[in-house]
Design a protein that fits this description.
single chain; alpha/beta; FAD/NAD(P)-binding domain; Polyamine Oxidase, Chain A, domain 2; 3 domains; 5-stranded parallel β-sheet; 20 strands; about 30% helix; about 20% strand
């Protein structure tokens, strides 16, 4: 797991007349985190976001037909997201995010048989032992094989370059894990967190999820979620926090071009309305597939920009369902061997005030290549039919509404070799830095990775500033 230091508010501080300025473009979590850390250190920060509100790929919106406020997808956190959780505390939004005191995940199969993955108060990894012993979707021989695999996972060095060359599925097969175990246990943990099938992700990133999440301690794998729409749980409190720090937040303003000289130094940026903005340094927090389009000339041909073409994205499709009566108990669950994957009880989670005895649910389908291009009504029918199989009470209920939300480029893919193309915060330009969950944070495409990337970019900016100031002071001292 990437190490991120606490903010050093003494670094980068300048008297008012000498304050250095920074423009951050891209108002998702990465841009927000970079702006916050720079503003905390006394920088004059301007944050630009093309949409009408901050949040990037973490946002909510009013659904036109019903007027309901829906998120662009179900977002979750785990206890290992220490930087994100600390940031939520800073912006006074932590109370809007629930986190389990202990791991407890309900896993159903298509016959409605329940298995639970849960933790107890005990030393690591004994805290997981009762869950594995009682998990109904594995036989006793399976559990013995899982135990041997866990021992291997605890011992292996996931930084071994060879693990970046193979899939996690192949690594598990080499450790005696048959497809039944892979599907009924390991893919449950991997598919939602990496937004990809376990047969596609690299062994290094799969092991990261298991080592830093499942096996790192009693609280790291505890699951949480927002208890309010994402704009209320993140975007608005983040903007309020930034503005209290003195940062200028400009929404509805896109960047058309990053203008550089022959040495790749950024001179200014051109906005969508044709105006130019100038600062001492610039932090790009836009998606990796957007960034290359902003450059021309030498910067467009740099190794950093060329490498981005090797990164890929994975889609997520969500279905928001409204039934005339309750069909699901509990706050969320996973369904094996089903397109449903993860199902969340929105009525319980958000305390939705809906008519009568109605129940709102959200279904989150990761790695949704099969569904990303089909018509929304057809996908809604597929999900509704699967609900009849997985939730017997749905057979006596009436589906009142179904809203489908697609995110084609929801996350970057952690396929073998991808980590080698993830850049750090520095670029070939002396005053352009990168943030984004796709940069080299050590984490997959998560909100935690986005926050870490913003902090990394801000620290690189301030380190570069210290080097510049030191160089200028040494030059002045040598003059006679």
């Amino acid at each position: 797991m990437a190490e991120v230091t606490a903010p050093d508010r003494s670094v980068g501080l300048h008297p008012a007349a000498q304050r250095r300025s920074a423009i951050v473009f891209g108002g998702g979590l990465a841009g927000i985190a970079a702006s916050a850390r720079l503003a905390e250190a006394g920088w004059d920060v301007t944050l630009l976001e093309a949409r009408s509100a901050l949040g990037g790929r973490v946002f909510s919106f009013p659904e036109p037909r019903s007027g309901r406020i829906l998120d662009n997808g179900q977002h979750i956190i785990v206890g290992a997201c220490t930087n994100l959780i600390a940031f939520l505390e800073e912006i006074e939004a932590r109370h809007l995010w629930y986190l389990q005191p202990k791991l407890d995940v309900a896993v159903y199969d298509r016959r409605q048989r329940l298995g639970r993955l849960y933790g107890i108060s005990a030393p690591n990894p004994i805290h997981l032992l009762p869950a594995f012993l009682s998990y109904s979707h594995l036989g006793w021989l399976d559990k013995a094989k899982v135990a041997r695999a866990i021992i291997s996972m605890m011992r292996v060095n996931r930084q071994d370059p060879e693990l970046e060359n193979m899939t996690f599925y192949d690594w598990l097969k080499s450790r005696g894990q048959p497809d039944r175990i892979v599907s009924n246990l390991w893919n449950v943990l991997i598919e939602g967190t990496l937004n990809d099938n376990i047969r596609e992700v690299s062994a290094s990133m799969g092991l990261m999820i298991i080592q830093d999440g499942l096996l790192a301690g009693q609280r790291t794998i505890n699951v949480g979620y927002p208890t309010a729409p994402l704009n209320d749980a993140l975007a608005r409190p983040a903007q309020t926090y930034l503005e209290k720090l003195g940062a200028k937040v400009i929404t509805g303003s896109s960047v058309r071009c990053v203008n550089t000289d022959s040495n790749c130094r950024v001179q200014n940026i051109t906005l969508g309305d044709g105006s130019n903005l100038h600062a001492d340094v610039y932090v790009s927090a836009v998606p990796f597939w957007t960034l290359p389009r902003l450059f021309s000339g030498p910067m467009a041909e740099t190794a950093t920009v060329r490498r981005l073409s090797n990164l890929e994205t994975s889609p997520i499709v969500n279905a928001y369902l409204l039934y005339d009566r309750p069909v699901m108990a509990g706050d969320f669950c996973y369904v094996l061997d089903s397109p449903l994957q993860w199902v969340f009880n929105s009525t319980l989670i958000y305390g939705d005030e809906i008519q009568g005895n109605q129940q709102a649910l959200s279904v989150s389908v990761s790695a949704a290549w099969e569904y990303i291009d089909i018509e929304r009504p057809r996908f809604a029918d597929t999900i509704a039919n699967e609900m009849l199989e997985a939730f017997p009470k749905a057979r006596d209920a009436t589906l009142l509404d179904a809203v489908v939300v697609k995110q084609r480029n929801a996350t970057f893919r952690c396929v073998p070799g991808a980590n080698r193309f993830r850049p750090g915060p520095r670029t070939e330009s002396p005053n352009l830095f990168l943030a984004g969950e796709w940069t080299n944070t050590g984490w997959p495409s998560t909100m935690e990775s986005a926050v870490i990337s913003g902090y990394n970019a801000a620290e690189a900016v301030m380190s570069s500033e210290q080097s510049r100031s030191k160089s200028e002071n040494q030059g002045a001292g040598s003059m006679v």
